[in-house]
Amino acid sequence: MLFSSSEFIFLFLPITFFIYFLLNRISNHLVGKSWLCISSLFFYGYWDASYLPLLLTSIIFNFFIGAFLSRGKENGMHFMRKCSLILSISLNLLVLGYYKYANFFIENINSLSGSEYTIKAIVLPLGISFFTFTQIAFLVDSFMGKAKEYDFINYTLFVTFFPHLIAGPILHHGEMMPQFKDKNNNRINYKNVICGLMIFSIGLIKKVIVADTFATFAERGYTQGYVYDFYNSWATSLSYTFQLYFDFSGYCDMAIGAALLFNVMLPINFNSPYKALDIQDFWRRWHITLGRYLRDYVYIPLGGNKVSPFRNYLNLFVTFTIAGLWHGASWMFVLWGAMHGLALIIHRVWKYAGLTMPKYLAWFTTFMFVNISWIFFRSPNLDTATDIIKNMLDISKSMDVSLPSIPTTDLSRYGLFSGWVAQHISFGIAAYISIFAMSLLALVICSQKNSQEIALNGKSGYIKVVSLALLSSISVYFTLHSESAVFLYFNF
Fold first, then answer.
1. What stretches pass through the bilayer (predicted)?
2. d(CA 119, CA 331)
3. Model pTM?
């Protein structure tokens, strides 16, 4: 059940919303929260009910271990607590590793040794990376005494709350539990409803209009056997760069919007990352909760920046290599993470040297690095990635008029201007004029205020109500007239 599906928008979300607040009104908040837990488990099971036992087992195990880690601190059981923490984290990672990396591990063993080991194909449970990392953070917080409130219904809701369950954001226990306990959140808050629906509608538009349009070009460009030239290499790379951004950003907007209907504010996961002026700024804006998680539970435990410069650079490199591996079982993901780790090292050296560059050059350099790194992230292998980049840099072919010609009768499908360009200048330019125009428009959109800045700032006056009606109408129209693909980050 996609956020962008009719089933979710017209059935699941309104039914869950109205029954939740009805139960809060005629009963107590515990009943309402129990309903949200049941609804969230149904939402997860709608994808594949066979993985519900795995999710429930994970919740029960981590809840009781977390309770022990917290209460044991008061009893001075440091050694037992430390052993329990290490064992529980190891078990969580072992389960994640089995489902996400077992096939990858066997393939690499076979490749290195020439063996032919095989295991049954393992299907990755949806959201396993997110609910596993969320609960590992809970265990560490419990050990350190940061998580002090233990209620099983609240904890189950913390893990399963449907807006974040499948693809994040990665939550901290401390930022969610006070919201679930707050009795003021038991009633409908009409300002939150307006803001939530507005953010949800913006996210839906990002997904079904922008991301899914770019997806057509990106999927074609990364199809095996596709022949690249200067134009379609740029079209392929830019298409995926914007598809991924608007897909994941759109999902996060819908998650925040849906949660806000229930008076729950999820942490912002995107803050206009394509406005970044350096790679560090990019990671402060892109997938913010993952960056926060890696900082708190990988980078700082490795020593962070309180070590020698060399160790600090090594910590950065290791942290982002792990970030690459977190996205999936592929050496291309690892390479992508290593590229970002190396870029952060270069940025830090540049910064320490006191060097600067003009603002627009800084933006262009950052954006182009991110664009090129996404090629490695998306490509099935290194040969495909290098082939795309090689053709992107081959300017000598940019005015190649030897590309296949098209009959004059077919020029109309490119539009009046593009048809003239195809006939008199270059078929290549004409064929990709639309994608470059779309990319330019996407950059303009990225440079404007983001959805949170639009919806959450200011009063909920008539302008917001009218804007909400317009956005909702547009988003619902395209939802009913599109076949939206699955969100990309469900794969990670």
1. 6-23, 53-71, 83-101, 121-140, 152-170, 190-210, 248-268, 316-339, 360-377, 425-445, 465-490
2. 20
3. 0.84
- Angle at CA 12, nearest 5°, toward 11 and 14? 70
How far apart (Å, rounded) are the C-alpha atoms in residues 21 and 11? 16
Q: Supply angle C-alpha 233, 357, 337, rounded to 5.
A: 50
pLDDT, one tens digit per residue, over 125-158 is 888 888 898 899 889 888 888 877 678 888 999 8
Highest mean pLDDT among 75-89, 108-122, 280-294: 280-294
**pLDDT the model gives residue 410:** 46
The H or E element containing residue 47 is helix 29-47
What is the identity of the amino acid at 335?
Answer: L
Q: Quick check: 455 and 199 in contact, CB under 8 A?
A: yes
Contact (Cβ atoms closer than 8 angstroms) between residue 36 and residue 81: no
Backbone angle region of 248, left / alpha / beta, with phi > 0 → left and psi within -120 to 50 → alpha: alpha
CA pair distance 484, 211, nearest whole angstrom: 9
Six token digits for residue 67: 């309770």
Contacts of 263 by beta carbon, 8 Å cutoff, 6+ apart: 179, 182, 184, 185, 189, 192
pLDDT tens for each residue of 247-260: 888 888 899 999 99
Helices (H), 262-358: 279-285, 288-294, 309-326, 331-352
Dihedral sign, Cα of residue 469, residue 474, residue 477, residue 480: negative
| 327 classed as catalytic | yes
Q: Which two tokens stand for residue 448?
A: 């404007």
Question: Do 128 and 52 form a contact (C-beta atoms < 8 A)?
Answer: no
Six token digits for residue 358: 């003009």
The ranges assigned to domains in the chain are 6-187, 193-302+345-491
Query: Which pairs from 473-480 meet CB under 8 Å and 24+ separation?
Result: 474/201, 474/205, 474/209, 475/201, 475/204, 475/205, 475/208, 476/9, 478/204, 478/205, 478/208, 478/209, 479/4, 479/5, 479/6, 479/9, 479/204, 479/208, 480/6
Q: What is the mean pLDDT of residues 169-175?
A: 82
Q: What are the backbone angles phi and psi of residue 261, rounded to the nearest 5°? A: -60, -30
Within 144-278, residue ranges assigned H as helices are 152-160, 162-165, 173-181, 190-205, 212-221, 230-261
Q: CA 119 from chain center: how many Å?
A: 30
What is the spatial distance between Cα 481 and Cα 475, in angstroms, rounded to a whole number? 10
Distance CA(209)–CA(477), nearest Å, equals 10
Alpha-carbon distance of 270 to 203, in angstroms, equals 12
Q: Which listed residue (164, 173, 287, 327) is catalytic? A: 327
Report the distance separating Cα 251 and Cα 211, nearest Å. 11
